[in-house]
Design brief:
The structure is a single chain. The protein is of the alpha/beta class. The protein folds into 2 domains: 115 residues, NAD(P)-binding Rossmann-like Domain (Rossmann fold, 3-Layer(aba) Sandwich); 188 residues, 2-Layer Sandwich (Dihydrodipicolinate Reductase, domain 2). It has 9 helices and 15 strands. The strands form 2 sheets. Strands 14-13-12-11-7-10-9-8-15 form a 9-stranded mixed β-sheet. Strands 3-2-1-4-5-6 form a 6-stranded parallel β-sheet, with helices on both faces. Helix 1 packs across helix 8, helix 4 runs parallel beside helix 5 and helix 7 packs across helix 9. The two termini are 33 Å apart. The N terminus is likely disordered.
């Protein structure tokens, strides 16, 4: 076991050296975001396919051990599938990194996630889950409005996921073909974003009820369903997910769907183009709180927003959102959702 560093808990110095593990489809958004952060020096990329690592334009390596030894990063960004996470976190800690950002779904199992958190805690290493949807500008706008009491007491929220990419025999092949063989898809890979986002907006989740189904026979996991969330503050939320259907947007992956948050003094509507509108209770007119625009990167540039948040926190010693120890609550809710669907009953967290 690596001994806790004498620097543990102290802010880093600039430039912060960042290395990336994984050069698959989504890594492009990570690399682009890191390059736009002035305080960061992006020092290397590793992938089992060295050609993919080389294509990033960074010093390329085939494994994490070589990556850590040759580049000596302060921060490791893990952009690989869940079954690789625990070992990667272990090697990074033993190699002396100061902080780790790890993609979601976080680790292969809840047991692996707890083990990774324990290793990081004992070594004094900051471990953050790259759960970026709460950093999308429309959810930051909604959260600010809720904090200010802009729609009164929130009673319910609804999100309708409509990605439009799940139909037919070629579903997911063009972008993320591994989706087809995932035994758990809609919740484990996708709805987990809204478990975290609902927690961010409405507080801790107390109970869930789920009705899940598989519509496309060529995939292994579920691709549609309803999930009802009960919150500690008395509110309710509905996640209505269907990867077969689409919504009104030029790019359905901007927001992945549409949302409605309703309170005693008004409501907030999120459109598929990223615009947020507010309507006061009893009125028909709406006001625009966030206009639609062409955002850089993915999902309103939320990858950049999350990575910048982490770097600022590490440099300034300020709190970080989605540290892995807190993210365990998201994993617990996900497990409860699958139990609810299997047992056909409401499950308390």
């Amino acid at each position: 076991m690596t001994e806790p560093s004498s620097l543990a808990g102290r802010p880093l110095q600039t430039p912060v050296r960042v290395a990336c593990l994984g050069a698959g489809y989504f890594s492009r958004f990570h690399h682009d975001a890191w390059r736009r952060i002035d305080a960061v020096d992006l020092v290397g990329s590793a992938d089992l396919d060295r050609g993919k690592a080389s294509a990033t334009g960074l010093p390329a390596f085939e494994n994490i051990g070589e990556l850590i030894a040759k580049t000596r990063p302060d921060v490791l960004d893990i952009i690989t599938p869940p079954f690789t996470h625990l070992d990667a976190i272990r090697v990074a800690i033993e190699g002396g990194v100061r902080a780790i950002i790890c993609q979601k779904p976080f680790c292969r199992t809840p047991e692996d996630a707890r083990h990774a958190i324990q290793l990081a805690s004992l070594a004094g290493v900051r471990l953050v889950v790259h759960e970026n949807f709460r950093f999308q500008p429309w959810y930051r706008t909604i959260a600010e409005t809720l904090r200010e009491g802009g729609i009164g007491d929130v009673q319910q929220a609804t999100f309708r996921l409509r990605t439009g990419d799940g139909q037919g025999p070629d579903a997911y092949l063009s972008r993320q073909p591994y989706f087809r063989s995932m035994p758990r898809l809609l919740v484990h890979e996708t709805a987990v974003h809204w478990i975290d986002t609902f927690r961010f907006l409405l507080g801790e989740i107390q109970a869930v009820y789920a009705d899940l189904r598989r519509l496309n026979p060529v995939i292994d996991g579920e691709d549609a369903g309803y999930i009802l969330f009960d919150f500690a503050g008395g509110g309710r939320a509905l996640f209505d997910g269907n990867r077969h259907l689409d919504h009104c947007a030029t790019d359905t992956r901007t927001t992945f769907g549409e949302a409605l948050v309703e309170g005693t003094e008004g409501s907030l509507s999120l459109l598929g183009n990223g615009a947020v509108y507010k309507r006061r209770f009893g009125e028909s007119e709406t006001s625009c709180l966030l206009e639609a625009r062409d955002w850089k990167g993915f999902g309103g540039d939320c990858v950049h927003a999350l990575q910048l948040h982490v770097i600022n926190g590490l440099l300034n010693g300020t709190p970080l959102e989605n540290e892995a120890s807190d993210y365990l609550k998201v994993i617990e809710v996900e497990s409860a959702i699958y139990r609810s669907a299997e047992q056909q009953r409401k499950v308390r967290i």
